[in-house]
Amino acid sequence: MFGLFKKEKEESLPDWYCELQESQERWFSFLEKLETKIEEFATAAIPELKQILEEDDDLYKRTFQKVYSGVNGQLNNIREKARDTFEEKILDTYQNINSQVSVLSKYYGLISDFRTVCSDRYHRGFEDKYEYWRKQIEKTQERDLEIEYQKILDEFESIKDKFSCKQCGGNITIEKIFLIETYISCPYCKTQNTFVPSTQGRNLQHIARGLAEQRTAHLQEAYEIENERERAFYHQRHELSLSTIHETDKKVLSEINAKMDELEEQRQSAIQNAPKLYHTYLRAMYDEWNKITPDLKEHNEKMYQNQLKYK
């Protein structure tokens, strides 16, 4: 599992060899236990967080946010424990032995190998798994706004024909979902009646953009993928460019240059295509937003034009 040190005769190894090996083995075992702890904690917390979010009727989801903050705090405590142990048990051991061994020693490489392997296990092993579960927990904040929107629509259907004039008692049909307190004229006696939307009805203006974004997320993803492709092509081309510095074979250089030209062509294509995909997403998102809250269309369109200026 560990494979840090080359197999050599026991008597030929320095005295500090066993200390490094034991430190590494304890470190690997320690990280495995922390990773198991993170996984067990996260898999238990995720369904609980989802349930709390669904049942939290507060507009700002304060109950959920309190629990969510606590979960992240505990997760971060585990991470800090790994970091502190790395500094105390691995770096201190490395620095202690490194200060005692000459760089000319044939065994000096074992010390740097120890630090590299332990560091990789920490940063590319433990940290990767920590980040994975952190993101899974982060996803629990993603509310299914279609469900919340449907609740608003259902409530509207149930109340739209139950409003009556305070003066003559005549029935007044509520024609649309109002976001704020509104005066509605009685069709019979023309009296102005105040209609006060429910808390759930008012909430529509707070979830409208989020719902529109959820409905057009596939278009945003297409834009982001294209944007990432541009950067990927750039880095690939840059790496190839570096490889030509000491290359003397003309045939190899020709092949590398041809590949670099191909990558640059793909990069330029992505540069031109990404803004088009972004505009497609943005227009679609605002169209959805305007469908959900048509009363805000004029305001939304101003925001849309402003976003176009800065993208």
Structural class: mainly alpha
What's the number of domains? 3
Largest sheet: 2 strands, antiparallel
Strand order of the largest sheet: 1-2
Hey, roughly how much beta strand do the residues contain? under 5%
| Structure summary, number of beta strands | 4
Mean pLDDT: 90
Cα Rg: 31 Å
Helix content: over 70%
Catalogue the unreliable spans.
Answer: 1-11
Distance between the termini: 50 Å
What are the secondary-structure elements, in order, as H or E?
A: HHHHEEEEHHHHH
Plain-language structure description:
The chain is mostly helical and 311 residues long. The protein folds into three domains: 10-142; 146-202, no CATH class; 205-309. The chain is built from nine helices and four strands, in the order H-H-H-H-E-E-E-E-H-H-H-H-H. The strands form two sheets. It has a two-stranded antiparallel sheet with strand order 1-2.
Which key phrases capture this entry?
disordered N terminus, 4% strand, 9 helices, two-stranded antiparallel sheet, two-stranded antiparallel ribbon, elongated, single chain, 3 domains, 311 residues, mainly alpha, 4 strands
